[in-house]
Amino acid sequence: MAAMFRLQGKGASPGTAFGQIYLAVDVEETFLSPTDPSAEHAILSDAVQGSIAALRELAARSSTESASILEFQIEMLLDPEITEMAARRIGTGDGAALAWVTALDNYIAGFEQSDNEAVRARAADLFDIKSRVLAAMTGKPVADFPVGFVFVGKDISPSVFLAHDWSSGGGIVLFQGSAASHVSMLARAKSVPMVIETGTFNIAGEEKLLLDGGTGSVVLHPSDEELRQALSTRLSMRPIANEAEAPCSTKLRTADGAEISLSINVNDLSDIIGIDHAGIEGIGLLRTEFLMSSAADIANEDRQYGIYRQVLEWAGQKPVTIRMLDLGGDKPVPDRDGTSFLGLRGIRLLLARPEFLRIQARALLRSAVHGNLKVMLPMVTLPSELEKTVTIFREELTLLQRRRISHRMPPIGIMVEVPATAIMLDTFGAAEFFSFGTNDLVQYLTAAARDNAAVADIYTHAAPAIFRLLEHTVHIAATLGAPVSVCGDMAGEPEYIPALLRCGLRHFSLAPAQLAVIRSQITQLNADGTMAVEK
Ligand code: PEP
Ligand code: MG
What we know:
Layout: E1 5-8, E2 10-13, E3 16-23, H1 37-60, H2 64-78, H3 80-91, H4 96-112, H5 117-136, E4 150-153, H6 158-163, E5 171-174, H7 182-189, E6 194-196, E7 208-212, E8 217-220, H8 224-236, H9 238-245, E9 252-253, E10 259-266, E11 283-287, H10 295-298, H11 301-315, E12 319-323, H12 347-352, H13 354-367, E13 372-377, H14 383-402, E14 412-416, H15 419-423, E15 434-436, H16 438-446, H17 456-460, H18 463-480, E16 484-486, H19 497-502, E17 507-510, H20 515-523
Helix pairs in contact: 1-2, 1-3, 1-5, 2-5, 3-4, 4-5, 11-13, 13-14
The structure holds phosphoenolpyruvate and magnesium ion.
């Protein structure tokens, strides 16, 4: 048997994992980007041909009346005008899914504006065709690895993390990585043990590895004694994990009586399985970019509507804050250059590609009738970005009205995660609520990228600067009378809660796994963040 070998990295998500190694080769994050135009043309053509074949089969089994409707749809799909419109968009750089949806939306708008009733009625068939072809574009599947294995590699993308089934255990060891990256945050939220910054190490053949995401230690070929110890630590931690799931329906207060609300951050629908919403205020942040695994998903209004509706129905009348796509930075991006952390990210990208914004706006407006929806915009820097987005929501609302589709205008608020926005908050009077994204606020305030291990120290030592800024901004928010919360990771970290309370914050949105520890900590603190004296 090979000798035991120990490495020291940094813990990024606590917990121990033991399993067979899956050694990942470097994978570029490309699943949302169009490949090359000829491949996108082929995707479009296959989806159209596949839809025609399916319609023919359906028509053959249908009554004469239904068959004639289906025949009409087949004729439309055979008409080169529509496919050529989509093909032209592929020629300008769009992926097949987006090209198809935008071409069809423009085409449908022409039918809807007709004075002729019969022509207007054809729009319904076109909607059907649009959905059918879109559903046929399944997108490239995200590369996965065997369940229960420990992922070892240079880095792991959020999409690979989210596509994997972690229910049977497993963990992550990264040669590089950063504790502030999105994937580390996802790992903590899902309680997947993760160690970063081990440096590259050699793995010969099939090997097993033990990792401790709390201490950052990694052991190759652990001895039986080592394994026994790790297992006993894991068992002794169990009651804490169970307590995290215990429902709590009483109002949460600090020791001196200030009311505090706790909401949850959701990255994936499985995050809400088994959560009792009785003990929480609602969902304070739903990161929609993690719910889409292909350009076809982003372009699919009905799929988005279905997901948002499901979450809203789960929450009943509790508020659900759905954040619009925050693509860019270290999250996957559709066909666009310049989408770095300092580039076209979040609302900037959506306004640069309003087709995406309009699709998501319609899905949100439609889902709003199923619960208590709030819509949040990411990466807002200027009041004009908020104004433009609200205008687009109003335009899409008028469109839905014309189509007689039920809808409701939700309150629209903003993330405060860019320092300029925090400093100038008084100019954002049009925002209906604010939520501090401390993960990004720290990186932009300190000029230290959250995914760069080399500046991780600067990132973690910036807390005093952040609290000074938060105090200033919470004060402005109070003068505007708009509700304010924190949804960055600081809200789930006990060491920062006293300072957040001191800044005047009373609403925290955090990973479900952190609820129990933060709830219990708050009862031991006063509203000014000081420790309560035991009576
Ligand atoms: C944040 O920046 O704090 C935040 C909540 O958004 P994200 O982590 O998704 O960038
Ligand atoms: Mg952010």
